[in-house]
Amino acid sequence: MYDDDDTPTCPHCEGPARVTFFDGSFLDDSDGEMLVFGVPGLWCGSCREVSTPRDLLEQLGLSGVPASMLIESDAAARAQAFPQ
Ligand SMILES: [Zn+2]
Q1: How far apart are CA 19 and CA 22, in angstroms?
Q2: How confident is the model at residue 3 (pLDDT cuts 50, 70, 90)?
């Protein structure tokens, strides 16, 4: 886990954020949806914003593409609920 000095900062509100993984769907140009799984990102509980690395989204061809849904991945949620 992170101590105070290593806590990531939310780029939207500069509050403390949590590193986790997301599954989600993005709208593509052909009115379809592209599903992605296990995308790393930051979750901010204060402003309820998700931030994902811009270079990763570019690699996936999703830069500037609106997400229709993002949920915390089941594996990440399970790891948080049942830490080892
Ligand atoms: Zn925030």
Answers
A1: 10
A2: very low
Return residues with CB closer than 5 A to ligand 1 (ion): 10, 12-13, 15, 44, 46-47
Contact 35, 25 (CB under 8 A): yes
Residue 31 structure tokens: 């009115």
CA of 50 to the centre of ligand 1 (A): 8
User: Count of residues for the chain?
Assistant: 84
Tell me how far the alpha carbon of residue 75 lies from the centroid of ligand 1, in angstroms: 23
In this structure, what DSSP letter does residue 47 have? Answer: T
- Residue-averaged pLDDT of the chain: 85
